[in-house]
Amino acid sequence: MATEGKPHLLKTVHKGGGNVTTTSFSAFDEPVDVRPPASAQVLDKADGAG
To answer: Of the candidates 40, 32, 11, 35, which has an alpha carbon nearest to the alpha carbon of residue 23?
Structure first.
């Protein structure tokens, strides 16, 4: 957590299942360009095995 200025989450670490995942955050207050994936990149779970 940032200790000066606005409080922001800076990093999170997840440990489990024999893996460690670290996510770092930056560029606060900047716009984020979020778009859905192209249709060809979307999987239908009904088509999968299981």
So the answer is: 11
Question: What whole-number distance in Å separates Cα of residue 48 and Cα of residue 28?
Answer: 38
Residue 19, strand partner residues: 16
Distance CA 26, CA 4 (A): 14
Phi, psi of 25 (to 5 degrees): -120, 140
DSSP strands (E only) in the chain? 11-16, 19-24
| pLDDT tens, N- to C-terminus, the chain (50 residues) | 667 788 888 899 999 989 999 999 888 889 989 999 999 999 888 877 55
Number of H helices, E strands in the chain: 0, 2
